[in-house]
Amino acid sequence: MTMNGAQSLVRTLVDADVDVCFTNPGTSEMHFVAALDDVPQIRGVLGLSEGVVTGAADGYARVADKPAATLLHLGPGLANGLANLHNARRGHTPVVNIIGDHATYHKELDAPLESDIEALAGSLNGWVRRSSSTAEVGADTAAAVAAAQDAPGQVATLILPADVSWGEGGTPVAPKASRSPRQVDSDTVKGIAEVLRGGEPVALLVGGAACREAGLRALSRIAKATGAKPFAETFPSRIERGAGLPNIERLGYLAEQVAYQLDGVRHLVVVGTRAPVSFFAYPGKAGDLVPEGAHVHTLAELGDDVVAALEELADEVAADVEPDLAPAQRPELPSGDLTPQNWAQVIGALLPENAIISDEANTSGLLVPMTTAGAPRHDVLTLTGGAIGQGMPVATGAAIAAEDRPVINLESDGSALYTIQSLWTQARENLNVTTVVLNNRAYAILRMELQRVGAESSGPKANGLLDLSTPDLDFVRMSEGFGVPATRARTAEELAEQFRRAVSEPGPHLIEAMVPPLL
């Protein structure tokens, strides 16, 4: 069968088990758009902004454990989606990023949308290739899918010129094997075991796949047998939690929190992550958060089989030890006006079975890990790269990856406004997402940071830039405008009643929770 380049690309994607494409296309991508009808096995999902597209691909892959594709329009389209691709990069999420470009012979004319796509894509530190002929598109696509899944996962960007897309002579190519995680040498495991037996205080810090059940159980066994302090990285891509699983504390966001958590530690063992550093520099404070004089040891690098390494270490130092598991336990439903504390108790009391939480609650959500520790088993997807505007798109992609699971998006008001167009996609696709927007009418975290960096914070101009109350934001009306039914809660009782109803009904819902700032 004769096909054009776009058709060979889409067929190669499907053959490689990439069956969802999130897109906001333009003229250069029209042959790809048409090819979606020729290959019905792939699902095209429209996002109204590129940040929604890229964030949804990130959320999809975190839950599906395989990549989705994006389809973006030229350099500006890629630039609009870079923030959430940055989060995917930091979370080592596999994403196949397809960027349409001008026809090869048109580029020399320097048309208004001409840009250096390779330079933009290169900032993601992933895989980048430009298809130079229609005959090569299939092979380039297969290579992109394999590269995206190379351990530990990355963003793979394929640039597709328009004439290469519409040209005839394309051929689908069979999937290529991706690079598997490396096995950790047994001598490395035995060396870490000696550190744990050495009698000095040890902390273990895990990330990546180690934040799933098998890794957490091994980590708990090791900690229980040796007295080491177990921690998960601050912002894991996906962490499994709830009753019947080890309740592993995440390392804090603030340097002061980390200093408290690691106080007295003489050895830090890192597994599938890096030694902690502060998110920002502060006058007169160290950015390296490893305690002074402590030694850092690496059990497994990012691209290693971190779960196998942890399980081997557990067998070495805790052969007959069972992990400590969180009991089934929920907070009592609170009453009264909503506060930064009691709204989280409502979520912990009512979180549905097998939920996926997309957590971008930021300062309002500090107590959520505590209130949900004994809730039914669930997954939490966090803000891996710190670029806000992730929560709503990630929830959207997660809901497409797991249509039989309830998705709960805990969302701060300032972050929601970056990609609130996600609601339209949720309505269009009838996704099972319940969004709780915490409206404290402020960039509360920036109020805190203004003080922590030692900047003068009393001036009206400075405070005005951190205020979201003039005019007040109305998330109920915004949500309804995008086609998602919405309610507003001012008390714990109202939030509980509205949350119960939202998670019991099909399709998307939004609850605007009016809470005062924590800080």
UniProtKB/TrEMBL annotation:
CDD domains: TPP_BFDC, TPP_PYR_POX_like. PANTHER family: ACETOLACTATE SYNTHASE LARGE SUBUNIT ILVX-RELATED, THIAMINE PYROPHOSPHATE ENZYMES. Keywords: Thiamine pyrophosphate. This is Thiamine pyrophosphate-dependent enzyme, possible carboligase or decarboxylase. The keyword Iron does not apply. GO terms for molecular function: acetolactate synthase activity; flavin adenine dinucleotide binding; ligase activity; magnesium ion binding; thiamine pyrophosphate binding. Belongs to the TPP enzyme family. SUPFAM superfamilies: DHS-like NAD/FAD-binding domain, Thiamin diphosphate-binding fold (THDP-binding). The lineage of its organism: Bacteria, Bacillati, Actinomycetota, Actinomycetes, Pseudonocardiales. The keyword NADP does not apply. Transmembrane segments: none annotated. InterPro entries: DHS-like_NAD/FAD-binding_dom, THDP-binding, Thiamin_PyroP_enz_TPP-bd_dom, TPP_enz, TPP_enzyme_TPP-bd. Residues 376-512 form the Thiamine pyrophosphate enzyme TPP-binding domain. Pfam families: TPP_enzyme_C, TPP_enzyme_N. Residues 3-108 form the Thiamine pyrophosphate enzyme N-terminal TPP-binding domain.
